[in-house]
Structures are given as C-alpha cells and as structure tokens.
Amino acid sequence: MKIIILTLFFCLISTIADASSFKGVALPKSQYLTELPKITVALPSSYEANATKNYPVLYVLDGELNGELVNGMLHRLHLSNGTNEHIIVGLTSHDRITDFAPTVNRDPRGPVGAGGGGDKFLDFIENELIPQVNKTYRTNNFNILAGHSIAGLLVIHSFQSRPKLFQGHLAFSPAVWWGARETAKATQKYVTSKQPIKNYLYMNIGSEGGEMREVYDELSQTILRNRNLDLYLRQDEFNDDSHDFTMAAGLFNALTGLYHYQQKQGL
C-alpha cells in the first residue's frame, strides 16, 4: 500500500507522496483544536488502477504507533481472504489524554484535571477532517474509528454519542474506567434504550485487573444482553496478553468481523 504522510497545522500538506497520484488537501486552521494532529494516509494498492472504485475509510487513533499495524493486517487479509481494501487515516495527537478523554478527570487516583477535549476532537474529525478526506479521495461514506486504551475510550464515546458518524467502531482495551465512568454509564444507557443501533462494534480486554476490568466487564455484559439485531457485536478476552498488546492480539478478529458486517451491508 502506498503511504502518504500529511502534516496538519494551518493546512493539510503532503510530505511524502508520489506526485503522480497525490494532491495536497487544503484545510483551514481548525476552529475546534488549537494544535492539530499529525495525519498519515495510506491508500490501497489498487487505488490508482481502479479509477472508479470508492473505498471505506478507517480512522486510526495514535496513528504513528498503530497505523502500520492496521495497514499490514488489512493488506494481508485482502490478499489472503479477499476482504475489502480501505483508505487508512492515522491521527497522532500531541496531547492524547486531552484529545481522547471526553470528560475531565476529578478522581485523585488519576491525573486530576486532565482530559475533557474528546468532543472537540470528534468535532474536528466530523466537520473538518472527514469532509476533506471525502473531497480528496474516492470514499464510499463507510467510516470506521479504531483506538486503544484512552483512544479506545473515545471510540466508545463516539459509538454512543454520535452513532451515525462512524459505521464501525474498534475499541481495544478501552479505558472506560476513566473519571467518574461517564462514558461507560452513557453507553449502558444508550444500549438499554432499545433504539435501533445499526453499527459494528468490536471490543476486547487483556489481562487487566482491578477497576479497569470491573468496569469493562459490566459494560461488555450490558451491551451483550441488550444489543439489538442491527448491532453487529464482536468481543474478545485475551487473558494472557497485557494491556499494551491487546490491539495486536485482537486486530485479526476485529477486521474479520468488520468485513462480515460490510458484506451484510452490501459493500
């Protein structure tokens, strides 16, 4: 897959690209973020040859750390199993706790006063980044958000607070214990409301214990018991794998489940 590096500051600019296939994406200064994230874009290997084909877009939080992992797995799955190719957009925040935590933490056991910028970050993605990606590349309006740990918390927050923004959500060891557990509680309320939830949700957990495991298990069971038929749910437990490796451990199942859901949607 062709890797294209974009840096966002006052505009979205290509720094590593094939001039014959890439055009820079102009993006005004964000009205939501004071410091814009670094963006990486990977185009499918078939992108140039199939000039009329549109692709789903997978937005990967902590893109510098996780983008290549997702890129490689998707490419291997496409070659081996014929799964859909995706445009991959990685986002690397300069302050991930501020940008990814939806609420400010008041618990003295954690970083008091940290977080609270999650909705502004989603505003940026929804109102500025996605429109520019759709304008620049051939997309099919099927968007997925993936994140690990505190980034996974933002994935869960997006799932319940903006259910139509992304059609798929991949949350690896999401930090749903954060703060006063606001995101976990809001998600439990959302899934028990009995309203239709047409989406794909993947969640997993590793060997984490204590409060993190307790809150995750409660949320996981609530979703499992109350999901409707429109919600395509896949969950994993990797009890022999530490927190740092749950994304690598779960990525195959997450992306395979995503492909099955996309097939059901006719993609």
UniProtKB/TrEMBL annotation:
<keyword id="KW-0378">Hydrolase</keyword>
<dbReference type="Pfam" id="PF00756">
    <property type="entry name" value="Esterase"/>
</dbReference>
<comment type="similarity">
    <text>Belongs to the esterase D family.</text>
</comment>
<keyword id="KW-0732">Signal</keyword>
<protein>
    <recommendedName>
        <fullName>Esterase</fullName>
    </recommendedName>
</protein>
<dbReference type="GO" id="GO:0016788">
    <property type="term" value="F:hydrolase activity, acting on ester bonds"/>
</dbReference>
<feature type="signal peptide">
    <location>
        <begin position="1"/>
        <end position="19"/>
    </location>
</feature>
<dbReference type="InterPro" id="IPR000801">
    <property type="entry name" value="Esterase-like"/>
</dbReference>
<dbReference type="InterPro" id="IPR052558">
    <property type="entry name" value="Siderophore_Hydrolase_D"/>
</dbReference>
<dbReference type="InterPro" id="IPR029058">
    <property type="entry name" value="AB_hydrolase_fold"/>
</dbReference>
